[in-house]
Design a protein that fits this description.
Blueprint: H1 5-16, H2 22-27, H3 35-57, H4 62-91, H5 96-102
Helix pairs in contact: 1-3, 3-4
Length: about 120
């Protein structure tokens, strides 16, 4: 069952009184040229902070505190991963060191006819 409207308003007032608005979170990613990604990162950032404040307001301890920490680590790691990927493969895509991350020598596949294969040499 959800909080009643008075409790919900109290919780929202507590959280909103301690975190900046969505635009502030979006501006943290002003170096991201992809606006869809920038907006998604802002969503993830503010939601992570929102959940943190909710659990902080509940004075989470024991297993709930560990869950709070785990959620933050996973959320921030996802944000960092998206930022790093964007910077490497969009901003620095022409950098030789970045290109070396995705370019590597492939071994050549050699097709050996059945008549020349191992199974005809008695090897098992």
């Amino acid at each position: 069952m959800a909080f009643d409207s008075t409790t919900k308003r109290s919780v929202e007032n507590y959280i909103n009184g301690h975190i900046a608005d969505w635009e502030w979170h979006r501006n943290r990613f002003d170096f991201i040229s992809d606006t869809i990604l920038r907006d998604r990162l802002a969503d993830e950032f503010i939601s992570t902070r929102y959940i943190y404040k909710l659990l902080e307001g509940m004075a989470a301890d024991s297993w709930l505190l560990r869950a709070q920490i785990r959620l933050q680590i996973l959320s921030y790691a996802s944000i960092y991963e998206a930022v790093i990927h964007h910077v490497l493969f969009n901003v620095l895509k022409n950098n030789p060191d970045v290109q070396s991350l995705i370019e590597f020598k492939m071994k050549k596949i050699i097709s050996i006819p059945t008549s020349k294969g191992i199974e005809n040499k008695g090897v098992r």
